[in-house]
Amino acid sequence: MERRKVDILCVQETRWKGSKARSIGAGFKLFYYGVDSKRNGVGVVLKEEFVRNVLEVKRVSDRVMSLKLEIEGVMLNVVSGYAPQVGCEVEEKERFWSELDEVMESIPTGVVIGADFNGHVGEGNTGDEEVMGKFGVKERNLEGQMVVDFAKRMDMGVVNTYFQKREEHRVTYKSGGRRTQVDYILCRRGNLKEISDCKVVVGESVARQHRMVVCRMTLMVCKTKRSKIEKKTKWWKLKKEECCEEFRQKLRQALGGQVVLPDDWETTAEVIRETGRKVLGVSSGRRKEDKETWWWNEEVQDSIQRKRLAKKKWDMDRTEENRQEYKELQRRVKREVSKAKKKAYEELYTRLDTREGEKDLYRLARQRDRDGKDVQQVRVIKDRDGRVLTSEESVQRRWKEYFEELMNEENEREKRVEGVNSVEQKVDKIRKDEVRKALKRMKSGKAAGPDDIPVERMRGCLRNGEVC
């Protein structure tokens, strides 16, 4: 996906049991659903930048699922489907089309279907010009007619068939001597103008017999303000003694050689922050993601590249020699991956036995928990009438209305107790020993307050009100 610049991918025959989401590395996340680990299963893979745009995930069955995304004010529904094969029972086929119809009825506009329909719509479009083009493959069969009938019911177009390509770039399924088209991308007819290209990608070993179908779609979105990324000071570097000592020296210089801190905390805090930024540096502000391919190394990358080239060579020239070369590289890649994973996990287990490793363990657990959630951040709410609000301004306005009503609503109050004596007395200045006790009681690893100075830095570099 990264190499082909694919942002959204519908996958079928995943054969993964469960109803989950997981990070699959390289900045991509898979949402999947499967009942039996030996058959069926569908999923949708999203690029990292679109993961936060997910509003809803519907897992209908191990043959149909959908995602609803909001991309800069535009709603886009992505449906992944896997139709029963030609030899399956009629009841199973009817159940699939019924489930797909049910999903489509709940989607008003803005939908793209990527599915293995296991049917041939055929070449030519006589009588079906409103839902497909002329560029299919071979003859239409009964299952292909079901696809065409579905497109007519839902006012959709079969995108693959509108673009004139060489047959090699239209064939989606190859097995032995069979070459046909069973995988399709569909969208509403009104959105066909947004599709600029659609073809089969040759040379990618994504599946044993199927080939990836890619279409280029341009969405007309509204311009929105990008949220400003806040860069963080790398306070954790103070764990190193040399960094800590340099920070102390620079802080003393910034304070004009004073040992005792000034009485004005705002001035002192700004000096500490500025010194920290200069000495320790700042982060990019983006959250670090723990990738599933953290074990990846150069040997694995090199083997996979050679396997990909061998697959492309075999697709172009189906000789026994090319086939054996590809199979040998497949086995080599599996060995390299297994060896790389084993080495990486051994290093991880060794690190987890240390004090620092305990923190890594909790961080990895939190990351896995986040990756397993479909919707990571609630970005939309409903108004009084149940309509979904997507823009930042409308969401903020609705929250304002809600709290104005909540806080200004008159309720019965308890009567104030009469006759309570108020006590007024002088409050002494905060003493150094009180500050020391407060610092000692504070827990480490907590978020910094408004001054952006973590408590660990105060404990480590400031003692008794003096720079140490």
TrEMBL record:
Residues 309-343 form a coiled coil. Keywords: Coiled coil. InterPro entries: Endo/exonu/phosph_ase_sf, Swc5/CFDP1/2. PANTHER family: BUCENTAUR RELATED, ENDONUCLEASE_EXONUCLEASE_PHOSPHATASE DOMAIN-CONTAINING PROTEIN. This is Endonuclease/exonuclease/phosphatase domain-containing protein. It comes from Hemibagrus guttatus. The lineage of its organism: Eukaryota, Metazoa, Chordata, Craniata, Vertebrata.
